[in-house]
Design goal:
The chain is an alpha+beta fold and 59 residues long. It is 31% helix and 29% strand. The chain contains two helices and three strands. A hairpin with a 2-residue loop joins β2 and β3. The termini are far apart.
Length: 59
């Protein structure tokens, strides 16, 4: 079952660009998803998924 965390970070980066990202966990994997439809690759480390989201938002 997929589970959503809150925003990837407490910064306002997502608000400034119009992108809001969240972490979705599925089994041992975590991936970043954005309200624009973008989805990052599945990662075993949450920190890597968060980094993917930050790169997407700064984009």
């Amino acid at each position: 079952m997929a589970q959503k965390d809150g925003p990837t970070s407490p910064t306002k980066q997502g608000d400034l660009s119009g992108h809001r990202t969240s972490m979705v966990e599925k089994g041992p994997f975590c991936s970043a998803h954005c309200t624009c439809g973008w989805r990052g690759p599945a990662r075993r480390a949450r920190s890597l998924a968060r980094s993917d989201a930050e790169v997407h938002v700064r984009g």
